[in-house]
């Protein structure tokens, strides 16, 4: 009876605190009991992980060594092909130069335009009507003088002048390459900025002016331009005769082509 009275006399917060402390004690005991196996497990697993890391590091070193070997091989092979690449570049440059010389590449730059037109003067006694018209000989004279004073490329009414170009009279027209041209004729020349001064001071051109402009009144005008355009040769290029240039017996052996 006295025990029951004592239990009832204990405050409720003390009972609650006691129960909480008892539960906490059980949790601490369980944690301590599991700590041992966890430590043993970690200790048992560490050697395999270290071994795996060491294997991966060794593999990485092998790959680095292989990369260096491959780089050395690439450098060696690039050194072997340097001569071939240089030869290809030289051939490309020679081909480009030949294409420009053959008129197969359009060009642009500073230049001069010489415009020729028929004479408006009346036909004088003892002369012919053809004397007052621009002829193929007139065009050839202007083109030749332009070459002589340093023109790099020439076109007549858009027809590129090449080493194979023919300028001839065909009835009332002038044939340039395969095009029939009529006056006025525009001779466009690519060259240095002083191309006009060179042309008008050359003896051959002065003779042309005296013989054709001063005598028969052919109309000639000039335009110095910062930008002239010389079109590419529009015809076909056919190799008919060729000769090897060099030393040895093969140098004099001619070859023919279509």
The percentage helix is 40-55%
Please compute the radius of gyration using only Cα atoms: 49 Å
Strand content: 15-25%
Helical/strand content category: alpha+beta
Mean pLDDT value: 79
The order of strands across the largest sheet is 3-2-7-1-8
Task: Give the helix/strand layout.
Elements (H helix, E strand, L loop, with lengths): L1 H8 L2 H90 L5 E11 L18 H13 L4 E4 L2 E2 L6 E4 L2 E4 L2 E3 L3 E6 L4 H7 L1 H14 L2 E12 L10 E3 L10 E3 L2
Antiparallel strand pairs: 1-7, 1-8, 2-3, 2-7, 4-5, 5-6, 9-10
Helix pairs in contact: 3-5
Overview features:
single chain; elongated; 258 residues; 10 strands; five-stranded antiparallel beta sheet; alpha+beta; 51% helix
Structure description:
This protein is α+β, with helices and mostly antiparallel strands. The chain contains five helices and ten strands. It has helices spanning 2-9, 12-101, 136-148, 195-201, 203-216, and strands spanning 107-117, 153-156, 159-160, 167-170, 173-176, 179-181, 185-190, 219-230, 241-243, 254-256. The chain is elongated.
Short description:
With 258 residues, the protein is α+β, with helices and mostly antiparallel strands.
């Amino acid at each position: 009876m006295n025990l029951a009275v004592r239990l009832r006399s204990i405050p409720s917060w003390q009972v609650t605190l006691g129960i909480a402390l008892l539960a906490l004690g059980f949790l601490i005991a369980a944690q301590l009991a599991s700590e041992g196996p966890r430590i043993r497990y970690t200790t048992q697993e560490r050697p395999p992980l270290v071994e795996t890391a060491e294997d991966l590091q060794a593999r990485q070193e092998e790959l680095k060594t292989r990369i260096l070997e491959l780089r050395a091989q690439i450098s060696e092979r690039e050194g072997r092909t340097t001569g071939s690449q240089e030869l290809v570049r030289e051939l490309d440059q020679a081909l480009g130069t030949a294409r420009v010389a053959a008129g197969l590449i359009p060009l642009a730059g500073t230049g001069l335009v010489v415009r020729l037109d028929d004479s408006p003067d009346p036909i004088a006694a003892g002369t012919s009507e053809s004397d007052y018209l621009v002829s193929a000989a007139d065009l050839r004279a202007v083109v030749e003088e332009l070459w002589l004073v340093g023109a790099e490329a020439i076109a007549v009414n858009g027809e590129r002048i090449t080493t194979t170009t023919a300028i001839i009279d065909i009835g009332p027209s002038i044939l340039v390459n395969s095009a029939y041209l009529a006056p006025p004729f525009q001779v466009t020349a690519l060259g240095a900025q002083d191309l006009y001064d060179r042309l008008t001071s050359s003896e051959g051109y002065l003779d042309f002016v005296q013989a054709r402009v001063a005598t028969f009144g052919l109309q000639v005008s000039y335009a110095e331009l910062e930008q002239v355009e010389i079109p590419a040769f529009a015809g076909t290029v056919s190799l008919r005769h060729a000769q090897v240039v060099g030393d040895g017996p093969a140098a004099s052996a001619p070859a023919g082509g279509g």
